[in-house]
Amino acid sequence: MSLLAQQRERSVAQLDQFLTARYAGERLNNDDLVEAELFGSLVHAWKVRPGGNAAIPQLLLGVDGRYPLTLPRVLLPEPARWHLHIPHVSREGNVCVLPEQATGDARQIGEVADHMIRRAVTTIEDGISGKNRADFLAEAESYWTGAASKGATPVWSLIKPEPPSREISCVECQGFLLVGNSPEECRRWMRNYARRDPASITSGIFVWMKRGIFPEDYFEKNGELLAFLTADDPGLLPRLAKLADGKRSRIPIVIAMLTPNGPALLAVSLNDSARKPSAKLNGFWPGALPPNLFAKRFERDASTRHIVRRIYPEWIHSRGGAKGMTALAQKKITLVGCGALGGEVAHMLAKAGLQRMTLVDGDRLDWDNIGR
Fold this sequence. Notes:
Largest sheet: 8 strands, mixed
Strand order of the largest sheet: 11-10-9-8-6-7-5-12
Number of strands: 14
Oligomer: single chain
Low-confidence stretches: none
Order of helices and strands: HEHEEEHHHEEEHEHHEEHEEHHEHE
Radius of gyration: 27 Å
Number of helices: 12
């Protein structure tokens, strides 16, 4: 047995002893792990009783195959009861109490486990009381991504999250939905990405929200979506009704809102999956369906939550933090000489966000200099 394997066995034995004495720990066997759907992600796990709060009678503490080089994980039984009801609980029931990159002292087995359990209890208690409810907004994109509709097409966004609310352009692509500020922007991006113009460009809506979206607001039906959006801006309903042309099965809506960590971008589709879209327009020309009738005819169909990927330059180059990116993107340079030095300079300018470059070199591109 290797020294690392021996250390792991000693650490697991110390952890078992500590949990048994401090938290009346009860070690799970493999069948228990399978039943709790933890087999594969955890090698050892214990039921622990933190005490002090009747709402948290029991937790699970588990370790993976790299323990003690990795931290223990604290989980809540019946994760569906907690996920999206209180912050910092994953779909699998993990209570997220420390950043993923956090480490612990492998020599302090009991102290580290005790710290993780106490932090988890505090996090859960704050969630039950509502003390940390604002954390749903601070990490809105993460929670929304975790609640994305199964099989939903991801949205690739060229739109920066800033007011005002407006009509946007959409392109249905293989494996993703592109949204941009204008048809011209979408065409330019598609020419660079796929070397062709989009087959068609449709319209959607960008909404700048004045209030935050919490998990209880995550829309299941079109009616819930329309009620939430129009409560913030009644003028959105006529604009959405105008987009109902009877030819497509969804109207994309990109929602932006301010959070403590900066603007968040969420995406949802107003769907018509129950019947042919044209059936909803009976008696009216495309785009002429009265707003109230539009809401009534579409309200029962399911909406779809999409993951959003930001692909505009400021985000790609610096997660939105670089100052002067807009000015730099509008510049154009001519670089004479693309050898060892010039090629590296061009590479650095492109990474910095410069979008338009004319590269000039009198040498012939051949196999001996293609790497430059």
